[in-house]
């Protein structure tokens, strides 16, 4: 009888160990799946569209005046988007400015005032590729930038805190009345360095606010759940 009782105890212990091991493997699988979702690809690509991201923008004097961040989500034309808001420093009001989604290293955007979706970023571009035109962004004609065409001229990296992020450099051309070449750059996980992140081609390229131009904002820093992805050192801060 005692021998049979010990057998039952041993079997129960084996069952408990087996269940615990399965739960541990499931937990490990979920953790790995979450990491895969956060990097958005097997090559370590850092997505722009992600909960916990914050962009802080400064004026030409290097004073932070507003921030952009994701808050909530929405469905448009059966596609899921994260809702981007901005908020001016010292104000409690938040303004819903855009809906963004990201797929295959491409960021798509829908403005509250425009029903159509357009491509805001494409980190699959290769050297010499053109991005943006009045044909794919027809609403550019309704503001003071005119139509915009950006040509990818260089691909390098941005280093910060022992991490490396892809950086795309563009030569930017704008139609009349401006019609002058300019430049801007994107950083993986961050976006463009001028304001705003969701529609950088709507605004003049203030990539260096110290060159005498007025108006417009430039990116001061970008954070991902407290981790700094980019910081602007032009003002020595």
What topology emerges from the helices and strands here?
Elements: H1 2-39, E1 53-58, E2 64-76, E3 79-88, E4 95-103, E5 106-110, E6 118-122, E7 130-131, E8 148-160, E9 163-174, E10 181-187, E11 191-192, E12 218-224, E13 227-231
Antiparallel strand pairs: 1-2, 1-12, 2-3, 3-4, 4-5, 5-6, 7-8, 8-9, 9-10, 10-11, 12-13
Question: What's the short version?
Answer:
The chain contains 1 helix and 13 strands; from the N terminus they run H-E-E-E-E-E-E-E-E-E-E-E-E-E. The protein is an alpha+beta fold.
Rg over alpha carbons: 24 Å
Measured between the Cα atoms of the first and last residue, the distance is 78 Å
Q: What do the pLDDT scores average to?
A: 75
- Oligomer kind: single chain
Low-confidence stretches: 24-40, 134-145, 204-214
The order of strands across the largest sheet is 6-5-4-3-2-1-12-13
Q: Which secondary-structure class do the elements indicate?
A: alpha+beta
Strand content: 35-45%
Order of helices and strands: HEEEEEEEEEEEEE
Classify the helix fraction into a percent range: 10-25%
Dominant shape: globular
Number of helices: 1
Question: Please, could you describe this protein's structure?
Answer:
Helices cover 16% and strands 41% of the residues. It has 237 residues and is α+β, with helices and mostly antiparallel strands. The strands form 2 sheets. It has an 8-stranded antiparallel β-sheet, with no helix packed on it. A 5-stranded antiparallel β-sheet has the order 7-8-9-10-11, with no helix packed on it. The radius of gyration is 24 Å and the shape is globular. 23% of the residues are buried.
